[in-house]
Amino acid sequence: MFRKILIANRGEIACRIIATARRLGIRTVAVHSTADARAAHVAMADEAVAIGPPAPADSYLRADRIIEAALKTGAEAIHPGYGFLSENPDFVTAVEAAGLTFIGPSAEVIRSMGLKDAAKALMEQAGVPVVPGYHGADQDDAHLEGAAEAIGWPVLIKAVAGGGGKGMRAVARPADFAAALASARSEARAAFGNEAVLIEKLIERPRHLELQIFGDGTDAVHLYERDCSLQRRHQKVIEEAPAPGMTPEMRAAMGEAAVRAARAIGYRGAGTVEFIVDASDGLRPDRFWFMEMNTRLQVEHPVTEAVTGLDLVEWQLRIAAGEGLPLTQDRIPLTGHAFEARLYAEDVPAGFLPATGTLAHLEFPETVRADTGVRTGDTISPWYDPMIAKIVAHGPTRAVALNRLARAIEDTRVAGTVTNLAFLGRLARHPGFARGEVDTGLIDREIDLLAESPAPARAIEAAALLEAAAPPAGPLAGFTLWAPLRRRVTLRRDGEEVTGTLLFEGPASATVEIGETVLDARLAPEGWRIEGALPGAVLRAGGAIHVFAGADGSFSFTPVDPLDRAAASGVGADVIEAPMPGLLKTLAVSEGEHVAAGQPLAVLEAMKMEHMLAAPRAGIVAEVLAAPGAQVDAGAALIRLTPEEEDA
């Protein structure tokens, strides 16, 4: 076994690997960008090495600096985690050339599975069922359209490289094929530098099932399936194991296919064989097809750990150190049911835009497993994936596990950034999902219900107003005279104000007036009860008041100082703000320039996509408040306009 390993990653997965290494007595080396100098994974590791600036291309994707750090610190092996360099065959080659061990499959295997068309051809040769389609080298437009006709409409155009839904278009009729092909190629070329595509039969009621496999280079086993059908824009949201509706016959057929795939390429380490399943008539052994293979540990591996009781990172380390498979197929347990929900810093009502912010508070219930790479006080950076944590619930049955997940989501408390918690909570309570009626289109069909952002109830506003009126804790807190008895308090939430009049009858009794609503409040040991009920846990942190209202979500309010109103009155539609964190790529205007309504002003790059910011009305550019190349936070002021008639 290794004495010291380097983790070529960051965040949650780096912390996860360090935890297992520590349990096995293995010393760890973390690498970090300057943005991550005080990150959780850096604090957890035995040693840490700085490898460059915040941009991944200058740090976490710099294979040379990572290998240099491993050699300098005496690490014997490198664990890539997932993402970044985890599926880069050139990195594997460089690691091994430096005399180090790569904790994962060989460069040859990664390369063979890296392109979808080549992987499917290889799987077809191994006897693994593949989706009917065209995976050939002839990329002529007419040839591809002819292949689509032969397959039968509808079809799916997919980029042969990459993933994440980029370069993918569904086509229902011949008249739409040419435009969809051009669009898919353009997106694939921009995202992967490779515009080649393949054509597949479109499964109209698909489920996404994947098999966790492990190989030692000679033999292979599977650790059962995960259902990853709950997706948004081809990105997984909630995963579970085992798959609902799974039959012994279907599991045996899929397991045999996955193991056959691993053996055919001499697979070593952890991997996932992903299948697309036609579930229109239940789960049938003749209705699943190979989709792709991920040659690394998956984000959702904790659900497999929960139902098997095994540590998949430990298996990776033992196999990479030269051991054989820890268990034979017949000794791998499968107990109960598990779910994993991905908690992100993102603005769901705004279209799931990534968000940033400093975590004023982060707390998970003790009833579930929460894998995270951040802590209270940490900042969600615009440079990296905004995942905060993975919430994992296990139970003896699917119903119990799902109830535990839903309750855990309600009891999770995050302050300092917007999150998808309320969205996850609605999804976990969705009746169709509870019945096991899952497919990859469920979220899109129900998005209006799942993504709604209701206004807080009056009781929640009252709880926030009462917290704002109370004096902060301190040496004189016990001597408050509660005078004056009548207080008027204003809070701001999402740009809107709520004002309440609070009439205190004593330190534990009050009446709250909000508009026409009058509410009775009584102070109990657990907090203010409004009309006899506790609206939620209330926390003051980060200069704001947060009410965690369980299934209703969380709500954050900022106390308004009346003296600050005048200073803030000039900010509004005249200021163009960044709608999300990102890189200000270009500015199309300069100070003093006249602009028309709708005219492009700037381009913001976020999450590998470009977003054009336009003038909300005609006017004159009074000020340019940020420079091209600047990394800006959501809400950052970029440009200020004045009306045409004003002198700029």
**How many angstroms does the end-to-end distance come to?**
70 Å
Q: Which regions have little confidence, pLDDT < 50, spanning 5+ residues?
A: 472-480, 565-572
Overall geometry: globular
DSSP summary, beta strand count = 39
Number of helices: 18
C-alpha Rg (nearest Å): 27 Å
Tell me, rounded to a whole number, the average pLDDT: 90
- What proportion of the residues is helical, as a percent range? 25-40%
The secondary-structure class comes to alpha+beta
Largest beta sheet: strand ordering: 14-13-10-11-12-15-22-20
β-strand percent reads 25-35%
Q: Profile the largest sheet.
A: 8 strands, antiparallel
Task: Draw up the topology in text.
Blueprint: E1 4-7, H1 11-23, E2 27-33, H2 40-44, E3 47-52, H3 63-73, E4 77-79, H4 89-97, E5 101-102, H5 107-114, H6 116-125, E6 133-134, H7 141-151, E7 155-159, E8 168-171, H8 177-192, E9 197-201, E10 206-216, E11 220-232, E12 235-241, H9 248-264, E13 268-278, E14 288-294, H10 301-308, H11 312-320, E15 337-344, E16 346-347, E17 353-354, E18 357-358, E19 361-363, E20 369-372, E21 379-380, E22 387-395, H12 398-411, E23 413-415, H13 421-428, H14 431-434, H15 442-445, H16 447-450, H17 458-469, E24 486-493, E25 496-506, E26 509-514, E27 517-524, E28 527-530, E29 537-541, E30 544-548, E31 554-559, H18 565-568, E32 575-577, E33 582-587, E34 594-595, E35 600-606, E36 609-614, E37 619-624, E38 631-632, E39 637-642
